[in-house]
Design a protein that fits this description.
- By secondary structure, the protein is of the alpha/beta class.
- It is built from 19 helices and 15 strands.
- The strands form three sheets. It has a six-stranded antiparallel sheet with strand order 2-1-4-5-6-7. The chain has a six-stranded mixed sheet with strand order 8-12-13-3-14-15, with helices on both faces. It has a three-stranded antiparallel sheet with strand order 9-10-11.
- The longest helix is centred in the middle third of the chain and has 51 residues.
- The radius of gyration is 49 Å and the shape is rod-shaped.
């Protein structure tokens, strides 16, 4: 609820403070006094258009400040809490604008983006006048309206819950898919691992392979050298070998020590040398048997060396790096397969949630469809009570391309002012007055549209008699469910207000200036009388008093 509004240097208002009450608040006054300007200022406070010519002559800028009562647990606090503000029982919105075209917005004294103020205004205000902050014929408003009209809150809550569940699973799936894509291609890792496993690499295999290749490539020279070494040790037909010479020396030492034990150490040394050379000859023999001069073996080893070299170039540089990669790929693939499993599980959850959302949305859509005929009839009856005797409203519903938390429906209001006229979307064919009256019919017919501040700028313009009286009671009824601010030229409308505010314009030092203040008791009777006849004659005063005494429509 709007409790107070301050204007400084706005249009005709120098310094004005206006207080409001729950229910219907009516602004009256002579033409040109600034009634509509006051509502325009309120719309501008919440991000509406503020032309340069609206900045008054008493300074270089204007300051607008709205004080509202808003429960701390009201959902409309949430965007402000997200900005770091603390929920309170009161919210204060301020706009300062200069002649340079710049504006600064504050909520609770803290600077905030203009978008935050506009969002708050869209959630708090329904302005029907200059199309500022008005969403009354928007898709979301009309869907809220039909749901309110038909008491479909249980179904709408079910759709919202299903939508939130779907979005949660959809976001989880998106995050997992992004995570899966960031860590790389699972199939590529599998391919590399298979390549490395098929290669059957052994530790230090390249070193051993190189040594063997070296031996094979130098095989003939190795064989000749090995054979010569063997002959030196073992001897030949024409020459005694080392082993034979050692054996002869050993036997001679044994002969000597029979007679002189002083050479016992020599005999032992020769014995050890004989054994060592014998073992060397045996090892050379075995080595000569292993020396492979087979060209096929050489080709095989060269092919294998080429495989290892290619793997080292691609995944190395060392063979140990290739082996490390092989081991790490096993763990990476296992992790990726776990993510892949989680992705598949999340995709199944998302599909189930999407199906549940689709079914809930279809149920809600069917329920809405069943309300259209009665709702169209009730709205038509309402506008025909406001001097549109041949006006007609038709509501049409169709499914949108995407299901959202509202169910994905699109509700369009078709309007025709005259019998036989083709009904078209209201925003394309209706005049400002017609739009205002249809908006009032929507607001009153919606059964639970509470917590909204409705602002009507001369909704009763051009009406007379019974129609104006009916509009007055409709505004009063709407105010009983929340708060209504309206500019009126109709006495029967003004008489229905719970709070009556009058805008007065006077001239001070050759400058027009306007003030806003409440009227009550006899002063209010006089203002109603002025609106009735332009005078305060006894007949007008009596009529005004009778209007104020009425408590129910038609009484």
């Amino acid at each position: 609820m709007l409790t107070q509004f301050d204007m400084e240097n706005f249009a005709l208002f120098n310094r004005v403070r206006v207080t409001f009450e729950p229910g219907l608040n009516i602004l009256t006054g002579e033409s040109g006094a600034g009634k509509s300007l006051a509502l325009e200022a309120l719309a501008a406070t919440f991000g509406g258009r503020l032309p340069q010519e609206r900045i008054g002559p008493w300074g270089q800028g204007t300051r607008l400040r709205a004080t509202l009562a808003l429960a701390e647990d009201d959902r409309r606090w949430q965007p402000l809490i997200d900005l770091g503000l603390d929920a309170d029982a009161v919210v204060i919105v301020e706009r300062q604008s200069g002649r340079d075209g710049r504006s600064t917005y504050r909520i609770q004294g803290q600077a905030v983006p203009a978008s935050a103020v506009r969002t708050l205004g869209e959630n708090l205000l329904e302005y029907v006048g200059q199309n500022q902050l008005s969403r009354i014929f928007s898709r979301s408003y009309l869907l809220d309206w039909i749901d309110s009209y038909g008491g479909l809150q249980e179904l709408t809550h079910a759709v919202k819950d299903a939508y939130r569940t779907f979005m949660r699973y959809d976001q989880e799936l998106t995050a997992l898919v992004e995570s899966f894509s960031k860590v790389g291609d699972l199939e590529e890792r599998r391919r590399v691992l298979q390549e490395l496993q098929d290669a059957k690499i052994e530790p230090d295999e390249d070193v051993k392979l190189g040594q063997e290749l070296t031996r094979l490539k130098a095989g003939r020279h190795l064989m000749e050298a090995g054979q010569a070494l063997y002959q030196r040790l073992d001897g030949s037909v024409n020459q005694m070998g080392v082993l034979g010479a050692l054996d002869e020396a050993y036997r001679l030492s044994q002969t000597v020590i029979r007679y002189d034990a002083d050479l016992a150490n020599v005999e032992a040394a020769l014995s050890d040398a004989l054994k060592a050379v014998g073992e060397a000859r045996l090892e050379i023999t075995e080595w000569l048997q292993r020396v492979d001069l087979d060209p096929a073996r050489l080709e095989e080893l060269e092919f294998r060396a080429d495989i290892l070299s290619r793997l080292k170039r691609r995944y190395g540089p060392e063979l140990a790096d290739v082996l490390d990669l092989r081991e790490s790929l096993v763990q990476e693939i296992q992790n990726l397969e776990n993510i892949e499993w989680e992705v598949n599980l999340a995709r199944r959850r998302q599909e189930v949630a999407q199906q549940a959302l689709s079914e809930c949305a279809q149920t809600l859509s069917s329920a809405r469809q069943g309300l259209l005929e009665a709702a169209s009839r009730d709205l038509t009856v309402a506008i025909r009570q406001m001097e549109m005797p041949t006006g007609h409203i038709r509501l049409e519903l169709h499914r949108g391309a995407v299901i959202d938390e509202g169910g994905g429906d699109v509700l369009t209001l078709y309007f025709s002012a005259s019998e036989g006229q083709v009904a078209r979307p209201i925003v394309k064919v209706a005049s400002g007055g017609e739009i205002a009256r249809v908006a009032l019919a929507l607001a009153v017919t919606g059964h639970t549209m509470s917590g909204i501040i409705f602002i009507f700028d001369e909704v009763d313009q051009g009406l007379g008699g019974t129609s104006a009286d009916r509009v007055g009671w409709m505004l009063r009824e709407l105010g009983d469910r929340g708060q209504v601010l309206a500019v009126s030229h109709q006495a029967v409308v003004a008489a229905r207000a719970r709070r009556h505010l009058r805008v007065l314009k006077r001239v001070e030092e050759a400058q027009s200036i306007s003030q806003v203040g409440p009227v009550a008791s006899q002063e209010r009777v006089q203002e109603i009388a002025r609106m009735l006849s332009g005078s305060e004659e006894s007949i007008a005063l009596a009529h005004a008093k009778s209007l104020l005494d009425e408590r129910t429509p038609g009484s």
